[in-house]
Amino acid sequence: MRCTLGVDVGTSSTKGVLVAEDGRIVASATRAHDVDRPHTGWVEMDARIWWDEFTDIARELIGALRQAQGSEAAEISAVGVSGMGPCVLLADANDEPVRPAILYGVDTRSGAQIARMTDELGTSEITRVGGSTLTSQAGGAKIAWIADEEPDAWARAERFFMPASWLARHLTGAYVLDHQSASQTSPLYDIENESWYEPWWQRYAGSIEQPRLTWAGEIAGYVTAEAAEATGIPAGTPVITGTIDAWTEAVSVGAHEIGDLMLMYGTTMFLVATGEETLRTPSMWTTAGAFPGTRNLAGGLSTSGALTAWLKDLTGSDYPDLLADAEKSGPGANGLLVLPYFAGERTPIQDPDARGVIAGLTLEHTRGDLYRAALEATALGVRHNVETMRAAGADIRRIVAVGGGTQGQLWLQVVSDVTRLVQEVPATTIGASYGAAFLAASAIADPGAAPVITDWNPITQTITPNADLREFYDTLFDRYVRLYEGSKDVVHELAAAQHGA
């Protein structure tokens, strides 16, 4: 049996799948991990875990495949890689990390660098070159933070990686980064010319060797003898460059065509709208697409699954009980309204010092009301993003949902009701690892014989909004926006106290 291997390094786990040529998942494996939060606003991880978990998963899946086949004839034809991002991992000349990797926009430490770079370069020029203003999502600002705050680590740094490119490096020896990931290394990437922007690279990252730019689905290189020994993958197996998990998730459900919006239900919530134009708005992220000729307008909530998991742990309950109680609670959660900014917020408010708010609490409220209000809060955040995207000119024709949260029917229905959007859910929602396997299969296919994602992963469910709730949720959305505006001054003071200011 010929299979492609897809592995994705996520925020809370690394997942791998073996996928047959017809798209059928033959085997899967997961390794859970934790991120480190050494200070308020810092989210980082020891990157050596990424390779360790990859090798464990590869060996487990290959063993499962060989056992199923009853021989050594099972074949891994290509490898796909993916990972959370944009992250900043700096390594020395021997590819040893000089410090833990700094994660994507949930890590908000680079505020001073964002302010300084914006002052030095100018907002309009930053937007012209890279498409987006500088926010906590900007990889270039995190590189500048290391240069400013950790000179010893900076002095040893010679290369720059994200999770997918780290895996590609270990597997093949290639030093590459895909265009989509590079476009989130603001302000170091020129989005119109699809290249590193030399003046600003030299100014803020000059001592770092530039990774070669390629597209996510292109072959980065081939498994080396050393990597084959570590993983069990045959030497010479092609490995794609890969990209950031949200974009690989979009590929996994076929939501990467012009007019598509991918909605990813995960530890955080992520939205990617695909088009041909470079749309610029200070509230969202403008990026290169995963494929040549495409552009994305993207956004992300800092919490979604992280918020529901927090409530689960806080109440000592399990998800089925919480969902049942939330179903009984009903729309509006008996008068509760939550701002889901428990880890600051990314888009569209771009406020790392935002904080969670639970408004309307009484002694009569139950855990079901709280859980329902949390689900509605993430849905209200999605609506805020969608409306901001459309105001910027995004032509959103089709919404496809993906990720672990799609397993819960109530959450899907709440999001459709609040946003007034129909959601399509495919047969397989395992996410980025499946998308990485598809990209790998596409990379080695004969001309004219590339796999089609709708054959691999057809739509099996459609979620339609309840028209009777339209006026109710319009009112709740208005309150949601006003609650943030009315509470943010006090919340910012509280955030300053948490930072020790």
Which descriptors would you attach to this protein?
5-stranded mixed sheet, alpha+beta, single chain, 501 residues, globular
Structural class: alpha+beta
Radius of gyration: 22 Å
Widest β-sheet, arrangement of strands: 3-2-1-5-15
Helix percent band: 25-40%
Tally of helical segments: 17
Biggest β-sheet description: 5 strands, mixed
Q: Indicate the proportion of strand residues.
A: 15-25%
Low-pLDDT runs of 5+ residues are none
Please state the average pLDDT score.
Answer: 95
Report the span from N to C terminus: 60 Å
Shape: globular
Number of strands: 24
Explain what you see.
It is a single chain. This protein is of the alpha+beta class and about 500 residues long. It contains 17 helices and 24 strands. The strands form nine sheets. It has a five-stranded mixed beta sheet with strand order 3-2-1-5-15, with helices on both faces. The protein has a five-stranded mixed beta sheet with strand order 18-19-17-16-22. Helix 2 packs across helix 4 (about 140-150), helix 10 (about 245-250) packs across helix 15 (about 430-445) and helix 11 (about 305-315) runs antiparallel to helix 13. The chain is globular. The chain starts with a strand and ends with a helix.
